[in-house]
Amino acid sequence: MIRNFLAVAAATIVFLSCESQAPKLPIIGDREVIEKVVDGKSVVDTIYPAIPDFKFLNQDSVLISNKDFDNKIYVANFFFTHCPSICPTMQRNLLKAYQKYKGNEAIAFLSHSIDFKYDHPHVLKSYATKLGVENDQWQFVTGSKADIYGISDKYLIFTKEDENVAGGYDHSGYLVLIDHNKHIRGVYDGTNDEETEKLLKEIDILLAEYK
Amino acid sequence: MIIGFSQLSSCHNNNLNIQTAQYAVNGQKLYRTHCQNCHGAKGEGLGKLYPPLTDNKYLTDNRNKLACIIKNGLSGEIVVNGEIYNQAMPAIATLTDLDIAYILTYVTTHFGDSDSTFTQEEVKKNLSNCTK
């Protein structure tokens, strides 16, 4: 009986997997199931968390917004230019992704500075240039404390101003992969080489979704 | 005859090499903790932000300043491998003379071409002459 059930289940899985051969990345974050009334009928819908609209000043002192990332996938992170701890390693790893996909308009990169006091656009510009960023595919942005720290929560990234840590700001070094619907599709430890390799593989998987 | 010489010299060097190797192993651990974030696992640096530690000429010419740079940090323009770098390096005042000797033995033997120990005595002497 149980064996029969398992056989049917296995057959169903095989059948279902026939429909989508390509691997697909999950949507990350707590989903919300809501009931709504459509045409007089009650239907159940699942809402996935998405990155809300934003406007930030970039390294060229230009105001950019979520619209600049429409019809692209992008990798986001949080850093600051004189960060003595995890940032250099995280940015070194993100640079690998930037160099791999440089010139590919289907993908962008977005680094938010959490040092709203010091990291003015010209500081970000100098940092980006010295890091080796040569086009606008990788944006470095600054904004108000409320805006930057507020949106870091949406990316599931911990950020905090803390005078007790080196550099004055505490944060986690994750690289977050975002799709065309602004859903989070992957979160990777940017200070870890293996996780960075995983990011590069999963960028390809996500790019394939839109081919 | 050549084999005899090389055995003799490797014998002579072996004592030195064991100490140098041990210093370098300890230095690598400290390097990972304190230096690798910016200067990289292979001493390659990062873009034009953080200089590589593989410029043997810089390491040799500035050998007596290296301990001061680690202990007190560094700011202002420097030229490494023909490139200008101008990003402040933080001081690590908590490192002991022996820690610095370990790190510098690792850096000068693995990234530079030195084959000798950077001794604690050398660190102590250099630190007493820091310009600050």
How would you describe the overall organization of this protein?
The complex is a heterodimer of chains A (211) and B (132). Chain A has 211 residues and is of the alpha+beta class. Chain A is built from five helices and eleven strands. Chain A folds into two domains: 2-47, no CATH class; 55-209, 3-Layer(aba) Sandwich (Glutaredoxin), CATH 3.40.30. In chain A, strand 1 and strand 2 form a beta hairpin. Chain A starts with a helix and ends with a helix. Chain B has one domain: Cytochrome Bc1 Complex, Chain D, domain 2, CATH 1.10.760. Chain B is built from six helices and two strands. Chain B has helices at residues 2-34, 36-39, 56-61, 66-72, 97-111, 120-127, and strands at residues 78-80, 83-85. Chain B has a two-stranded antiparallel sheet. In chain B, strand 1 (78-80) and strand 2 form a beta hairpin. The longest helix of chain B is centred in the first third of the chain and has 33 residues, at 2-34. At the A-B interface, helix 2 and helix 3 of A face helix 2 of B.
Shape of chain B: globular
> Helicity level of chain A, as a percent range?
25-40%
Average pLDDT score of chain B: 89
- Structural class of chain A, by secondary structure, is alpha+beta
Strand content of chain A: 25-35%
Largest interface: A-B, 16 and 12 residues
Enter the CATH topology name of chain B: Cytochrome Bc1 Complex, Chain D, domain 2
Task: Give the CATH level 1 class of the largest domain in chain A.
Answer: Alpha Beta
Number of domains of chain A: 2
Radius of gyration of chain A (CA) equals 20 Å
CATH superfamily of chain B: Cytochrome c-like domain
Poorly predicted segments of chain B: 1-16
Tell me the name of the CATH class of chain B: Mainly Alpha
Low-confidence parts of chain A lasting 5 or more residues at pLDDT below 50? none
Inertia-based shape of chain A = globular
SSE layout:
The complex is a heterodimer of chains A (211) and B (132).
Chain A: H1 2-19, E1 32-38, E2 41-47, E3 55-58, E4 63-65, E5 73-79, H2 87-101, E6 107-113, H3 121-131, E7 138-142, H4 145-154, E8 159-161, E9 169-171, E10 174-178, E11 184-189, H5 193-209
Chain B: H1 2-34, H2 36-39, H3 56-61, H4 66-72, E1 78-80, E2 83-85, H5 97-111, H6 120-127
